[in-house]
Each structure stands twice: as C-alpha cells, then as structure tokens.
Amino acid sequence: MGDVHVVALCGSLRDTSTTRLALEHVLEAARERGASTELVDLREYELPIFDPDRDREDAGDADQLAAKLQAADAIVLGSPMYHGSYASPLKTALDYCGFDEFEDTTVGLLAVSGGAFPVTALEHLRSVCRSLKAWVLPHQAAVPNTNSAFEDGEFVDEKLADRVATLGQRAVQYAVIEPDPGTLESDQNVGAKGQ
Q1: Residue 39 contacts residue 69 (beta carbons within 8 Å)
Q2: At what angle do helices 158-173 and 18-32 cross, to 10 degrees?
Q3: What CA–CA distance (Å, rounded) separates 70 from 58?
Q4: Which of 59, 88, 121, 136 could be a cystine partner for 111, CB 3.0 to 4.6 Å?
Q5: What distance in Å separates the CA atoms of residue 28 and residue 51, rounded to the nearest whole number?
Q6: Domains in the chain with CATH codes
Q7: What is the C-alpha separation between 78 and 87, in angstroms, rounded?
Q8: Mind giving me the DSSP string for 110-159?
Q9: pLDDT at residue number 132
Q10: pLDDT top residue among 51 and 178
C-alpha cells in the first residue's frame, strides 16, 4: 500500500480548526497503513466564488487545487457543519472540480460540529460526491461537541478517536477499487467538466 496517496481537503478556514485537527488524525492513520499523505488547507489557496463563465485556469489557485486532488488515490473531505450543511469554502473548492478529479476516486467524509452530530453535512457531501461519480466510503466520521472532543490536540473519547482513525485506514484500504458499471442516470449529469 506504499504507493497510495491520500489527500485530505479541509473546508475550515479557522486558525484553531477542529476539522483540521481531526483530518490530521485521519492522515496519521493513513500513514500508519503505508500511504503518503497531504493536508490541503484552503487558507493557503485563493479561490474566488465559482463563476461558470470563468475558466478554471483564470480563477486564482483553482487549477492548482484541482491538480492536487486529481493526483490523489483517495480524498478525504472534512468540514465543519454550518447551518445544517458543509462550509462554503469547501463548496467553492468542489465547484471548481468535476469528474476529472472525482470520478472512480475513493472519497472519505468527515464533519465536525460544536453541538449535535453533523449528520446533514455528511449527507450533503455524500450527495455531491455521488453526483461526481466518486466511490464514497460507507464509513464516515462525525465529531460532535468539538469544544470538549479534544484535549492538547488528542481525542478525549477513545471510541471517537478509533472512528476517525478508521476513516484513514479505509481510505488506504479502498483507494484502488474497481468502478461499478455506469447507470442510465449517471450519463445525465454533465458536472463542472472544464470549469
């Protein structure tokens, strides 16, 4: 599994982001499985709001971001839950991508929230990834109550730590998987190809 490359895309722009912290734990577990890893921090990218009339090459760092995702064998998307969904920086990043970056690519999902379980954020991300023809892992990680979930950068709850680590392990385990045959409805989604 040493040739597997896992990229985690952090949808939080906060300096003290618990999303980023949780994704670092995901990537640590992936490295323990022999994968190379990279955390893509959207704070380091200039991404204007998506405009379908603008070529991706002319949209700040969108082309660079897409190239990093396209080079991945598995992608883990992480986001805080805002208003019952995932964060707008991640939405913008995904809008600049399409089938080239996601089709037949293994994708893991992680969401965090300051309160209850961020299930709807995970559901929304799963729908987006499925429309991009990604292979979304059945296992996902939800980190609720983030104010008390970490202490000195480590998970307080061992079961939650195991669940997050399992996401990294599954990203490596299923990074190379045979795609399913296409369906009639899959041909109807034109996506953001070339944008």
Answers
A1: no
A2: 60
A3: 18
A4: 121
A5: 35
A6: 5-177 (3.40.50.360)
A7: 9
A8: EEE-SSS--HHHHHHHHHHHHHTT-EEEEEEEEE--HHHHEETTEESSHH
A9: 95
A10: 51
pLDDT band at residue 195 using 50, 70 and 90 as cut-offs: very low
Question: Which two three-digit tokens encode residue 173?
Answer: 């385990």
Give CA 120 to chain center in angstroms.
15
Which tokens in the block code for residue 23? 């994704």
**128-179 pLDDT, tens digit each:** 999 999 999 999 999 999 989 999 999 999 999 999 999 999 999 999 877 6
